[in-house]
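Chain A, query sequence.
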Amino acid sequence: VMGVQPVEDVTLIRHAYVATAHRRSGIGSALLEGLLARQDRPVLIGTWAAAEWAVAFYRRYGFEAVPEPEKTRLLRRYWTVPERQIETSVVLADARWRARAAGGEGGS
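Chain A, predicted structure.
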């Protein structure tokens, strides 16, 4: 299952789960590839920084962690999360977001 949410000018990947018995069989990759192929705007993912396996998975598909203070700004703009969660989260951005941010249009 992968759940997305369009918010303002981006798409958020909100949920990504594969049943334990079917993990490491390519299902997550197929879901993500299909989802990304249908997006016409930047994609952001918020997850726990400690979920290193999740961060590594998304990095394989070109997502990169957004540095502070941009991470905090994005979490406050696109998500509704408590401060404690902001402190323990990471935001991963796709190439479209990074290109837009480099051009001065980082979703401000």
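Residues 51 and 89 are 9 Å apart (CA to CA). The beta strands are 2-7, 10-16, 43-48, 64-65, 89-93.
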